[in-house]
Amino acid sequence: MNVVPRDLMTENVVSSADFRGAMRHLTGGVSVITAGRGKDITGMTVTSVSSFSVDPPTLIVSINRDASSFPLIRRHGAFGVNILAADQLDIAERFAGKGGLKGADRFAGARWVTAVSGVPLLVGALSAVDCEVEEIFERHSHGIVIGRVRDVRNSTRNAALAYWHGQYVAVDQDEDALRLADVSVPTKVRRGI
Asked: Do 58 and 50 form a contact (C-beta atoms < 8 A)?
């Protein structure tokens, strides 16, 4: 791949509003990133979690450097990824800042366990992943955090919470499969086809 030197790139300015509008079309799974230990804990709702590598198990998350979680992740070298189920909308909103709650107050109203790294993990999440920070790249307003997976707690639940067009939506494997079957299977089967 050829990389264009920075001084040869044309400066094309894209507005923040245009970029946000484009990203609203990208459906993302909703997770809560947790950080800190003991009473010095906080967390945030994100859609920026992605698998990075299977061998070794590693994931990547993008976190605004002004977020309260970022300094705790740097200091303790660990974070939790809690992939939310469809019925955990209240948790997503609380960790997104709705209601003005901050820090440890965001954890009220749900059950949490302490991971080996010390970070809180959500009981009842689709998956709760304990990560050790492997590396952080700081670019622009965000830190790109690579986390080595140290523990995974999967549930048997199958309805996920997603974010699309500025709204939370439920993605239910069983219900959505039935809906797709209803629209994709012809009601009349013709002979010879």
From this structure: no
The two three-digit tokens of residue 1, written as one number: 């791949």
Q: For 18, which DSSP code?
A: H
Residue in the block written with tokens 């469809």: 86
Distance of CA 61 to the CA centre of its chain: 7
Closest to 153 measured CA to CA, from 182, 187, 119, 193: 119
Selection from 75, 76, 68 nearest residue 42 by Cα? 68
Q: Which band of pLDDT confidence, cut at 50, 70 and 90, is reported for residue 10?
A: low
189 secondary structure, DSSP code: P
Provide φ and ψ at 64, rounded to 5°: -60, 130
Which has the closest alpha carbon to 120: 144, 103, 133, 98? 103
Nearest to 48 by CA among 136, 142, 134: 142
Cβ-contact 79, 34 below 8 angstroms: yes
Q: Is 184 helix (H, G, I), strand (E, B) or coil?
A: helix
3-class DSSP assignment, residue 104: helix
Tokens of 75: 């200091």
Q: Which residue has better confidence, 2 or 147?
A: 147
Tens digits of residue pLDDT in 71-124 = 999 999 999 999 999 999 999 999 999 999 999 999 999 999 999 999 999 999
Residue 147's identity, in one-letter code, is: G
